[in-house]
TrEMBL record:
Domain of life: Bacteria
Key words of the record: 2Fe-2S, FAD, Flavoprotein, Heme, Iron, Iron-sulfur, Metal-binding, Nitrate assimilation, Oxidoreductase
Xref: InterPro entries: BFD-like_2Fe2S-bd_dom (IPR007419), BFD-like_2Fe2S-bd_dom_sf (IPR041854), NasD-like (IPR052034)
Species the sequence originates in: Vreelandella sulfidaeris
Protein name: BFD-like [2Fe-2S]-binding domain-containing protein
Any matching Pfam family: Fer2_BFD
Presence of the UniProt keyword Oxidoreductase in the record: yes
A molecular-function term among this protein's GO annotations: metal ion binding
Amino acid sequence: MLVGNNGVYDTLLQYYSNGIELPDEPASLILPQSSGAAPTLGPGALPETASICSCHNVTKGDICATIDAGVVDLGGVKAATKASTGCGGCTALLKSVVDHELEARGVEVDKSICEHFAHTRQGLYDIVRVEGIKTFTDLIENTATPTLTAWAAISASPL
C-alpha cells in the first residue's frame, strides 16, 4: 500500500507485473529523487507485453501496432484500442507511452496540458503567476482554447 504521494504507483506496478529487474538501489523508486539520480522506469523500458490498460486488456504492443498502422495522436489510440476509456486509471501511463512511441517514430508530439489549454503544465503555471490570474474563470478567459471559452460562456449563462 502506498501512503502519501502515490505518483510512483504506475512505475512500481510495471516492475512487478512485468518481472523487470529492480535497480541497484530499489529504495530510489519510492524516495525523493536526488540530484543526478537515475531516472525511474520510462515507457521505453516497458516490454511489448506490458499491460497499459487492464480494463480493456491493452498492451504496449497493441499501442505500438496501432501507431504503426497510422494512428498518430492520443485520441486516435484511445478510439482504436479503447485504452483509458474504462476507469481512466491508466490515462497518464497511456499518454506517456503514446508520446514516447510517436517521438521515437519522428512524430512531433503536442506537449499541451490538455486540449483546452495550448500550454504545458509549467507554461500555464508561469502564465498564472506572471499575469496574476486568481480565478479559474479568468484563466479560461485569458488562456483557454476557443472551444473551452465558448463552453464556459454557455455554461455561465442562465437557463
